[in-house]
Amino acid sequence: MSDRDQTPLSFREVMNLPVSVDLRTASRAFGICLATAYRQVRLGTFPCETIRVGRRHRVRTVDLMRALGIEERPIYADDLADGVALTLFE
Question: What kind and span of H or E run contains 82?
């Protein structure tokens, strides 16, 4: 495991997450180690819902963000310039 895997996700990294993430990424977002995340999943105390896919756990990014207290995705000037934010209002 690299140092990057153990450091919490930055705000920018959280905003760039795909639709769902693995448990390792979700645990980084909460600033907890992967072993603790698996223990919390097993006990039903992980901060947000997890989805079991085979032997792996996935977390929907919308649930992750809600648990982190991020209710809406902010719009940045770069998004407007790239035309990304325009699709949010259509």
Answer: helix 77-82
What three-state secondary structure class fits 19?
coil
Tens-of-pLDDT digits for all 90 residues of the chain? 444 456 888 877 887 888 999 999 999 999 999 999 999 999 999 999 999 999 999 999 999 989 988 876 655 555 555 555 444 444
Q: Is 60 helix (H, G, I), strand (E, B) or coil?
A: strand
Distances (CA, A) of 79 to 58, 61, 65, 75, 85: 27, 19, 19, 6, 5
DSSP state of 48: S
**The pair of three-digit structure tokens given for residue 12, joined into one six-digit string:** 């920018």
pTM attached to this predicted model: 0.70
CB of 79 closer than 8 Å to CB of 87:
no
- For residue 46, give both structure tokens: 């992980």
What is the H or E stretch that residue 67 is in?
helix 61-67
